[in-house]
Write a structure and sequence with these properties.
The structure holds two protein chains of two kinds.
Chain A: H1 2-21, E1 26-30, E2 35-39, H2 43-50, H3 56-62, E3 63-67, E4 83-88, E5 91-96, E6 105-111, H4 112-118, E7 131-137, E8 149-153, E9 158-160, E10 165-170, E11 183-186, E12 204-205, E13 211-215, H5 218-221, H6 226-231, E14 240-245, E15 261-268, E16 281-284, E17 293-296, H7 303-308, E18 310-314, E19 317-318, E20 321-326, E21 331-336, E22 344-350, E23 381-387, E24 393-396, E25 401-403
Parallel strand pairs in A: 9-15
Antiparallel strand pairs in A: 1-2, 2-5, 3-6, 4-5, 6-7, 8-10, 10-13, 11-14, 12-13, 14-15, 16-17, 16-24, 17-21, 18-19, 18-22, 20-21, 22-23, 23-25
Chain B: H1 2-22, E1 30-32, E2 41-44, E3 49-54, E4 59-64, H2 82-89, E5 97-104, E6 111-117, E7 137-141, E8 147-149, E9 155-161, E10 185-189, E11 192-198, E12 205-211, E13 219-227, E14 232-234, E15 241-247, E16 250-256, E17 261-266, E18 275-277, E19 279-283, E20 290-298, E21 301-308, E22 313-316, H3 318-323, E23 338-339, E24 343-345, E25 350-355, E26 360-366, E27 372-378
Classes of the chains: A alpha+beta, B mainly beta.
Chain lengths: 409, 382
């Protein structure tokens, strides 16, 4: 009984302070976030409301965002836009299911009487407590650009004439479907090369839509195929080309890139050799340290495959750690989570690991049938056994063998 | 008092048993995010279970809509300008909206729509919504016109993978990615989900039978047809739409193909690894893609109803199927039709059809003024 009375007193006190403060709720459309906020609400009531599970219909009655008719400003079809509602930082937030779009008129409607009615309060409402509206439009096209090209692999200055793939890394998720409209190879006169890429549909994006894999047309690269005979290689040896990514390419929220990206490549001899394991160099760290193990290849390797096709194990199974790639994809580094022990380890490498021209240890991308013996192995895995001791060792890879299993122990 | 307790205990056991019986189909369902990459096609099973074919993921997801309130109404379902209404809901205009499929819940008469917000201009005469692989919005429309989203973020569901789908990156003659044809249509019948599409097998066109509730006991067959309008045997093109249907007391699948053969496939032939040669019942006329096929009870008599891209709504009398025992074996020239006859129902622009209730077929129709409407066609008029 006394508890209830206390609550009533507190409520009455709070209502009176709210009435005194006379702060009127305000709707804000944040173009940079693409969200709607309602701030300057009665904080105590907002707190009570945040404890309630509102249905979608209740949210719509409280705060609704509509597409409106260009001429009348009235909601079209009276259907509130789908999105997520939440109460956070003393504000009500609304994030639409899809970004607001340029050229469309929107209206946000906040129903203050309903805000009070939801809490079943009978306190008289101040005169300003009514329905408030905010009409808005996306002004700029559409908002400030924020996304950029982070990196393009290979990050070299020269490429073999039979270069197979490029990887483009963006700082944020991109839209799918229009990649090849914004991607060009320009020759030394600045003229675009005709269809250098295999225009795949759907495009080859990673799960986050931040990395795009682009294939130079393999049909034009592989000798003996009709696109190669008709159009020739997409890039010509001894020439300079510029890869151009134009800034109109839209990110997932519809914004263009911050700026266009250009990278120059000089085209050299074709690479039709598999990587040579005996020319690789290992730097083996000392035991009881967490220093990096370093594997240097005899040529730059495919960046994405390098990142996921090598692991280190002991008898007890695979060890965990951080992988990094350096020196234009020529160096693979592994930093273990736990210090190296004075024992034997194995480096396991998937023999599908490729150089820039798509030559792996298992298969050369473009080989006459009589040269097939030049492929180092048919097995699935290359194993380099190593011994960790108290000394740092720096040496060429001498001992290695191939095996069938690809299963990590 | 003890008597009342005993009564309550018996009562609660009774309810438990009832629940256990009802939940049989969803016993192996889990609650959580249904990882759907693209809603290619929809069909309802029993007890409000909706099957979603997802070509991009190469899987079929069964979701429990929990939409089981019976609706015995015999009224039509109409909603004008549905694209524009969905556009308002998604904060945009109708030129951004593509409706990929429609399924009516036979229990509640609510309609379920697969929708994407993208670029509607990418769909054309030979480019179907099924070729666009980013539909991730499932909407529910009630007979009173209320539209809401069915969130797949936290839903009771079960997933079956479709083995050996086509790799992404190869195009078909319509310049669509072949991967989008992994699942072209689904049909549920008597504990089995039939899945039509293409695989990366030598004969691409395939039919799978998944037992439901899902287990690993699925069967896979490849399908060959005599394509009368092309004058050749074909194994590459997928079935576009199909229907389980008994002909001469034999369970069959009636399957319609692009350009536009209608074939029958005996279900008994769909055994694991079989290559099935079908019977071409009709050539419905070239230059057309069949979009949907359903069985309608028209005043006590079954009719087969087919919606098309470039032809009228067609109605076939099952009695005529039984008469065509031989099937077509010769080339059919031009845009002519041959074999089992059909009646042109005076409806054009019908993109999706489903049975709504005892008296009406519900349809998604592009109207002469360009708007996309949900209309209802009296079953007795087909």
């Amino acid at each position: 009984m006394t508890g209830k009375a206390n609550i009533a007193i507190i409520l009455a006190f709070l209502s009176s302070t709210v009435c005194l403060s006379q702060e009127i709720p305000r709707i804000v459309f944040s173009e940079t976030d693409g969200k709607i906020f309602v701030d300057q609400c009665d904080i105590y009531r907002l707190h009570l409301l945040s404890k309630r599970e509102l249905t979608l219909d209740q949210w719509h009655d409280l705060l609704a965002i509509y597409v409106t008719d260009k001429n009348t400003g009235k909601p079209l079809h009276n259907l509130p836009i789908l999105g997520q509602y939440k109460i956070e930082d003393d504000q009500i937030h609304f994030k639409p299911r899809f970004p607001f779009k340029k050229g469309i008129n929107y209206l946000t409607r906040f129903n203050i009487p309903y805000f009070y009615a939801l809490l079943e309060e009978n306190t008289p409402l101040p005169s300003w407590q009514k329905i408030i509206d905010l009409h808005f439009r996306i002004k700029s096209a559409p908002i400030l650009p924020d996304t950029q090209v982070d990196k393009v692999y290979p990050d070299l200055d020269t490429l073999p004439v039979n270069q197979l793939k490029l990887y483009i890394y963006f700082s944020q998720a991109m839209q799918e479907g229009r990649a090849y409209d914004h991607l060009q190879i320009l020759d030394h006169d600045g003229k675009p090369v005709d269809q250098p890429f295999l225009e795949l549909s759907p495009e080859l994006w990673d799960a986050e839509n931040t990395r795009l894999t682009v294939w130079f047309d393999p049909g034009r690269i592989k000798r003996g195929l009709s696109p190669n005979a008709l159009k020739g290689l997409p890039l010509k040896k001894g020439n300079k080309y510029v890869l151009r990514i134009d800034k109109d390419w839209k990110d997932k929220t519809g914004r263009p890139l911050q700026k266009s990206f250009e990278k120059e490549y000089y085209i050299t001899e074709a690479d039709r050799q598999a990587p040579t394991v005996s020319n690789w160099i290992l730097q083996i760290p000392a035991s009881a340290t967490k220093n990096k193990l370093i594997l240097e290849f005899d040529e730059p390797m495919d960046h994405a495959l390098l990142g996921r096709m090598i692991y280190i194990s002991t008898e007890n199974g695979r060890i965990t750690g951080k992988v990094s790639i350096a020196n234009q994809s020529k160096i693979w580094l592994f930093e273990p989570d736990e210090a190296w022990r004075k024992t034997s380890y194995e480096i396991s490498i998937n023999t599908k690991i490729e150089d820039l021209a798509g030559n792996s240890l298992r298969r050369l991308f473009d080989t006459p049938i009589e040269d097939i013996e030049r492929t180092p192995t048919k097995e699935k895995e290359l194993i380099i056994p190593i011994k960790i001791s108290t000394k740092v060792k720096n040496k060429k890879v001498r001992k290695y063998y191939y095996r069938t299993s690809t299963k990590p122990k | 008092m003890p008597k009342i307790y005993t009564f309550l205990i018996i009562l609660s056991f009774t309810f438990l048993n009832v629940n256990a019986y009802n939940d049989g189909l969803t016993d192996n369902f889990t609650r959580g995010k249904a990882a759907v990459k693209s809603i290619s096609t929809l069909t309802f099973g029993p007890e409000g279970i909706l099957f979603i074919g997802d070509s991009k993921s190469g899987s079929v997801v069964a979701i429990d809509t929990e939409d089981k309130e019976p609706n015995n109404s015999k009224k039509p379902f109409t909603l004008q300008n549905v694209e524009a209404k969905i556009a308002s809901l998604l904060g945009t205009t109708s030129d951004d909206i593509i409706i990929h499929d429609l399924a009516a819940n036979p229990i509640s008469q609510n309609l379920y729509l697969a929708v994407s917000r993208g670029d509607a201009s990418s769909v054309g005469s030979w480019k179907l919504p099924n070729d666009i692989n980013y539909a991730q919005i499932l909407l529910k429309i009630a007979p009173d016109g209320h539209i809401g989203e069915v969130s797949l973020d936290n839903i009771s569901h079960s997933i079956a993978n479709i083995p050996s789908p086509k790799q992404e990156g190869q195009r078909n003659w319509r310049k669509s990615d072949k991967r989008t044809e992994t699942i072209t249509d689904l049909a549920y019948d008597n504990g089995k989900l039939y899945v039509a599409g293409i695989s990366n097998e030598e004969f691409a066109s395939s039919l799978r039978i998944l037992p439901f509730p899902f287990s690993d006991q699925s069967t896979f067959s490849t399908i060959e047809i005599w394509h009368a309008a092309h004058g050749k045997f074909e194994t590459e093109a997928p079935i576009r739409t199909f229907l389980p249907f008994e002909v001469n007391n034999t369970p069959q699948l009636l399957a319609a193909y692009t350009c536009t053969p209608l074939v029958s496939i005996p279900i008994s032939a769909l055994k694991q690894g079989n290559h099935v040669k079908t019977k071409t019942l009709a050539e419905l006329g070239a230059g057309n893609i069949p979009l949907d096929i359903i069985k309608v009870n028209a005043s006590g008599k079954d009719k087969i109803l087919i919606a098309n891209t470039n032809r009228t709504l067609m109605s076939i009398d099952p009695d005529d199927l039984s008469k065509h025992t031989k099937g077509l074996t010769e080339k059919v020239n031009g845009y002519s039709a041959a074999g089992v006859p059909y009646t042109s129902i005076p409806q054009v622009g019908v993109l999706q059809i489903d049975n709504l209730n005892q008296d009406f077929v519900v349809a998604l129709k592009r109207m002469p003024n360009g708007s996309l409407d949900i209309i209802s066609i009296p079953s007795k008029r087909v």
